[in-house]
Every structure is written in C-alpha cells, then in structure tokens.
Design brief:
Length: 167
C-alpha cells in the first residue's frame, strides 16, 4: 500500500481543513500518482475537495467511523477491518492513502511506500504527518531535483519501509 502527502518543514499537512499551500507541481504529481488508482480518504478530507465531491478518475474510498455515512461516487468503509476486507480485492500498488491526519496515522502500519512533497517552508499547521526522517521503519530511497513555485521551494521524495533481515 502507498501513501501520498505534501508536508512543510515541520511535517505539517493542513490548517483549518485546508492544505497549507497550493503548488501546481504538487497537484500534478498527485494526479499522476493516483489517477486510475484506489484512494483512501477520511470524511473531512473528502469534504475539503471542491464541492465536497470525490476526485475524478479514481476509486474514492472513504474511511469513517460513522456507519450511516454515504455519498455518491464513493465506497464507504466503517472501520479498518471493513477497509482491509475491501482492499483485499486490489493490488497493493494500486492503493494510495491520501489523508487526513487521522487516516494517515491509522493506516501507516500497512503502508510500504510513501510519496512525499517536502515544502521548504514552515506554516502554522494544525494537522501533521509523522516525521519519517525520525522513523526507524522508513528510509528515503529517491529524491527529485529541487523545484520552486512563487518563491516556495519543494521537492518530491519516495520513502520505503525497511525490510526486516528475517524476511
């Protein structure tokens, strides 16, 4: 399973239900990675999308604790157990965890590859992603060249879960 996220210098990912910054190159990277895939999002993340609608050209899976929640164009899973049953139908590389904070934290133990847009700036965030640079289970295995949008530097990184020597 994959995850994809944009983080600031402090691993912040959002504030007041919004992204910290809109970078067209990051949006393009997200589209390229997730189009045609299964994306897992929380209810609040879905509601932050334009008009609260699912993203096009993707199988939108909403993970929520509300067993009465329903929305057109989405598959709703109530709890991790139900989600894992559903995900068993799909190839691991076709699954992307896309937020928000609580969904990332809940599903991180199941994720092997994480695509990060690291933004070279600090924002006042109220939502964060775990700091993978301090996580002994993950290592950065690829990094793009630095890029910039309107004075804000950023780059893409790929983190992978380290394999146990016993495996």
């Amino acid at each position: 399973m994959n995850a994809i996220v944009a983080v600031d210098k402090n691993w912040g990912i959002g504030r007041d239900g919004e992204l910290l910054v809109h970078i067209p190159g990051d949006m393009k990277f997200f589209r390229e990675k997730t189009t045609g895939k299964n994306i897992i999002i929380g209810r609040k993340t879905l509601e932050s999308f334009p008009d609260g609608r699912p993203l096009p050209d993707r199988h939108n899976i909403v993970l929520t604790s509300n067993d009465r929640y329903a929305i057109d164009g989405c598959t709703v899973c109530c709890g991790v157990e139900a989600l894992m049953r559903l995900l068993g139908k799909f190839a691991d590389d076709s699954i992307f965890v896309c937020g928000g904070e609580s969904v990332y934290r809940l599903l991180l133990p199941y994720v092997d590859t994480i695509w990060i847009t690291k933004i070279d700036k600090e924002f006042e965030a109220d939502k964060h992603f775990p700091n993978l640079d301090k996580d002994e289970d993950f290592e950065a295995v690829w990094e793009s060249e630095p890029m910039e949008h309107k004075g804000t530097g950023y780059r893409f990184l790929k983190y992978e879960r380290k394999q146990n020597e016993d495996e």
